[in-house]
Each structure stands twice: as C-alpha cells, then as structure tokens.
Amino acid sequence: MPKFHTLNVKEVRKETNDTVSVAFDVPNDLKADYQFIQGQYLTLKAMINGEEVRRSYSICSSPMDEELRVAIKKVEEGRFSTFANEVLKADDKLEVMTPMGRFYTEVHSEQSKKYVAFAAGSGITPIISIMKTVLETESESEFILFYGNQKTDTIIFKEAIDGLKNTNMQRLSVYHILSREAIGSSLFEGRIDKERCEKFCNLFLDVESVDEFFMCGPESMIFDVKDTLETLGVDKKKIHFELFTTSATPAPQKPKKKKAISNEDLSDITVILDSHSYQFQLGEDGENLLDAALKEGADLPFACKGGVCCTCRAKITEGTVDMTVNYALEPWEVEQGFVLACQAHPTSKKVVMSFDET
Ligand code: FES
Asked: What is the mean pLDDT of residues 310-326?
C-alpha cells in the first residue's frame, strides 16, 4: 500500500527558468519503502495557503544514482508547481508518498534491446530515469530519444543528456525538436505531431526492430505518436506512455444516465483498506467512490483525481461500477476487476471495493 512519510528536502536545484528538481533525504529505516523503479513517480503533499494540495511528479534519478529526486515544472496557475519553484527550499519538510507507477519495462544486464522515446517538455523526467538505467544496466542496448521543447534554453536536463550522449556515443542518439526557435531544418522545427513522428520513424528507425517505445508529455503528443506507431504496425504491447497530471486533466463527469442508480435505489458500498472496512450508501449524485469514501473518513491513496495517475487503484470484489475515464489501467487489469476509485460510480445495488488486493 502506498503511504506518506515526512521527508526532509535535501536540495532544490534550478534546472531551467521554470523548472526545479527536488531531492529528498531518505532515512535508513525508510530506504526499502522508497526504493523505486526507473519511470516511477512520487506524490507530494503540502499545505499551501491553508489548503492541502497533492501532486504527482516523476522521478528523474535512476535507481542506481542512490538519490530520490523529482523534477517540477511550473505550470500556469499550478499551486504546487509554483510553490515548489518559488518557495520550497532545502531542509523544508514535505509529505512524500512511497513510489508508484508502471511506466517501465524490466531491465537486465544480458538484454540487448532497442528503445525509442518521445518526450516533450517536462515529459523528459521519467524518460531520463529510464534512459540512464537502460544505458547503465544493458551494455548492448541502444536508445533513441526525440525530445521536443520550445527553445534551447527550456530544454530540461540538457547537460545531463549531453553527458549521457558523450559516454554512450554508439548507443544513444538524441534529436531535439524546437517549436519556437529556428534551427535551420524544418524537420526539427515545430511540435512532435503525427506527420513529424511518421517522418522520424521512416528516416531514423527500423520500426520493426524496436523493442520498446516510451512516450511522455502532453496528451496530444502522446496520442499522435501512439496512433502513428499503431498505423505503422507496432504491437500495442511495445507502446508505453505516461500522461501527466496537469490542470488540463479532465474533471470527473457524472456517470451516464442509463447506468446510474436512482436516488430511491441507493447502492450499499463497502470499501476495504488495511483490513478495515467502511460502509456507506451512494446514490445518483455523480460522486465517485473515492470522494464518497474520503468523506467517510477512509484515508485512501489518491493524487490526480483525474483518472491519470493510478494512485487510487482498487479492486471491485463484488458488484459493478462504471469508470468515467481511465488513462491509467491496462486492459487486463480492468478485466480482473481493478478500477480507479476516483472515476468509479456504482452500477449495482451492492459494491465492495478493496485497496488490499494487488
Ligand atoms: S487519483 Fe489519480 S487516477 Fe485516481
């Protein structure tokens, strides 16, 4: 079960004008809890202007760095990101949830694979963690990165990427794409969209020989690249993407009328967490199971409340629910009854949802 602990901020480092990376001190007795896999994220919690705010940020370090560090890009009207960029400093304390996320494939020293990543802006954060880990662990593997930014000076981790390139000349290729700076080549000027992605695939890749594709950035880029790859015949199992929790995350909507429960016909809900059960009734008021259970005092894990981060993953062990959106669960998980509690609405008279099933 994911759990919050109070960690000391070891360093806040300015990476670009509007991005900091934040490293944490992890005490020895919590080292095992904060062991992470490349590509995972942390959910941070702070009181900002008297209000609790939680946000998830990808880890940018590699498990081999022996450092727990996330990158936080300031977004317009982003309460947490503004706080992190303008107020947070070394030796402050933050509530940090144990690492979560499945944006990775297993690395093994004997593997020889081809990896391709498409990142835009702060989408580089989990990608650089994956890239460092692959290059350090798999001496025979190759990595190609397509990285979109507005201008050269907004490229996050530019030095680190250049450093990786210098030490892995034969195995790492990096292509920068800039949307607001002329670089003398129309191919690399603009955004990573369907057309450009197709051109990159034709010019720089033997798509069939690629073992894993990773994408992280704005939703439009992710779906453009995903669609292009699928059109080119790439097996869906090789395509991995991570959507970020942003203010653009769609707000939960009411469930569809025809499947909703009427007010006279309230559902009996049981939520199980750490072997404790919480019971309440829920009707057709559009409230999701997560919010309803939080009101009942269940300290459930959550971050984005937008169906993106997967922090609120639980299993329906009895009854049925509808999910408004699902950007996080794999088809096999949905088949096995896993749901995103923040998106789940009851569609049967009785529903049992457990956070203890993994
Ligand atoms: S809290 Fe992020 S998917 Fe539910």
From this structure: 94
pTM (whole model) above 0.90: no
How many angstroms does the Cα of residue 245 sit away from the middle of ligand 1? 9
* Shortest-distance Cα residue to atom 3 of ligand 1: 307
pLDDT at 349 over 60: yes
| 104 belongs to a structural domain | no
Distance 3 CA to ligand 1 centre (A): 15
Number of domains the chain contains:
3
Give me 123's structure tokens.
């989408």
**How big is the CA angle at 113 (ends 107 and 115), to the nearest 5 degrees?**
90
CB 345 within 8 A of CB 288: yes
Q: Is the pLDDT of residue 250 over 70?
A: no
Closest Cα to residue 284, out of 355, 349, 354? 349
Token pair of 264, please? 């006279």
Q: Which two tokens stand for residue 12?
A: 């806040």
CATH number of the domain residue 274 falls in: 3.10.20.30
Q: Are residues 269 and 337 in the same domain?
A: yes
